[in-house]
Amino acid sequence: MSMPDATARPRILVVEDDDGLRDMLRNELDDAGYETLSAADAAAARGLVEQQSPDLVLSDLRLPGDSGQALLAFCRQLEAPPAFIMITAFGTVEQAVEALKQGADDFLTKPLRLDHLRLAVARALESRRLRSELSQYRRLLSEGEFHGMLGRSPPMRELYEVVRRVAPLASPVIISGESGTGKELVARALHAESPRSAHAFVPLNCAAVPAELMESELFGHARGAFTGATRQRDGLFAEADGGTLLLDEIGEMPAGIQAKLLRVLEDGCIRPLGTDSERQVDVRLLAATNRDLEAEVAAGRFRADLFYRLETFQVRVPALRERGDDLDLLAAHFVARCAAARGQRPPALSDQALACLRAYEFPGNVRELANALERATVFCGDREIRPAHLPERMRRRRPMQPSAAAPGAGIPGGQDPLEVLGDDPDTWPSLDALERRYIRQVLDRVDGNKRRAAEILGIARRTLYRRLDDM
């Protein structure tokens, strides 16, 4: 069994009325690197559970006074219950199995085998860690979810508020943002929050429809209107009547169709191809784009009058690199989702893998993150996701300033750390002292921004917090 992290040693409560066995168990667990507490009966154990919040309770089934099962029941009703392993004599295995049904993580039979003890403890603690992470992820998701969008960062909270304010209106909306930021999710949220939510939401990717078919796709056609038109088609405006039509990548729309779209926005009427009659439709139009439409207007590629008709309300979707800690929330969500789809246990994200993700700029935004983590869950199975499981471009470290090729790279001020040493080795600082000094200097240079400091130092933010706590 590997040594637990010394900076956060799991705490184990041993409950056993046999003094010799209790001492032996404590000694074994102490040697394995755990912090231990002990009690001789259930009443004392309950007090220690309330006061010390152990990570695991290792309890005999038969105790003076209340039984180990009663202690288990007490622990299970806590907000953050400890893992629980029951110790039983051979003749009471049926009771131990009953304890498993009541929520115990495992049971051991006397006489105890120490190798089995160590393995059971490690497994129970890992199971509790996973349960705790899952509970935390669910809490974060419930707090940060808005119509399928995940995020609690200020830019996302601002986006949610804009959506709530604009959604009840009938006016067109331009939804802008980089590729992969989730513009269609924003469009669906605008529809869901609007009075039109009971009617259809119809999306169309303008870049995916050939120019010669765009008019028919939007406005419909009569039978025989053109070669291959063997039956009447209503078109997407008719399909979205009473609801919402999303024109994704509207900057790709041909100029001739832009003029007809402008007319629909002005009078609410469509004319299917091959007909002389018009049809009135009530459609709320949303237009999504990753282009700068004002620049497209200036370049003559997008009609100015259509742009001005659409731009009454603009909703900008923030890039992933602007969303701070949302990255961690999204990463946990995608890992859990991909693992569930494959019927496997969600793997943990290592500190090193998280550091790679946090240091990467994500030009493909949330879509790129989701794809990268789907790949990672496939290659790591149900084990830990490490940097090797991420795409190579995400494993590249961003260069520090000054350049890593320069003397003293990564040292504030460019000074080689050996140059601070004098001639007397007795005066040289320890590695620990140098590390603390370097961490303080990096924090000073980034104005206390712990996220940026962790990126420069190449460590996870929670690792930085632990080191700061020790300083």
Supply the CATH architecture of the largest domain: 3-Layer(aba) Sandwich
Q: How many H/I helices? A: 19
Quickly name the level 1 CATH class of the largest domain. Answer: Alpha Beta
E-strand count: 14
With strands numbered from the N-terminus, the spatial order across the biggest sheet is: 2-1-3-4-5
Helix content: 40-55%
Determine the structural class based on helices, strands and strand pairing: alpha/beta
CATH-assigned homologous superfamily of the largest domain: P-loop containing nucleotide triphosphate hydrolases
What coarse outline follows from CA principal-axis ratios? elongated
Unreliable stretches (pLDDT < 50, length at least 5) are 1-7, 398-419
Average pLDDT rating = 85
- Please give the largest β-sheet: 5 strands, parallel
Rg, rounded, reads 31 Å
Query: What is the CATH topology of the largest domain?
Result: Rossmann fold
- Separation, N- and C-terminal Cα atoms: 29 Å
The total domain count is: 4
Percent of residues in beta strands: 5-15%
Can you walk me through this structure?
By secondary structure, the protein is an alpha/beta fold. It folds into four domains: 136 residues, Rossmann fold, CATH 3.40.50; 170 residues, P-loop containing nucleotide triphosphate hydrolases (Rossmann fold, 3-Layer(aba) Sandwich); 75 residues, Helicase, Ruva Protein, domain 3 (Orthogonal Bundle); 59 residues, Arc Repressor Mutant, subunit A (Orthogonal Bundle). The protein is 45% helix and 12% strand. It has a five-stranded parallel beta sheet with strand order 2-1-3-4-5, sandwiched between helices. A five-stranded parallel beta sheet has the order 9-10-13-8-14. Helix 2 packs parallel to helix 3. It is elongated and about 100 Å long. The protein starts with 10 loop residues before the first strand and ends with a helix. The N terminus is likely disordered.
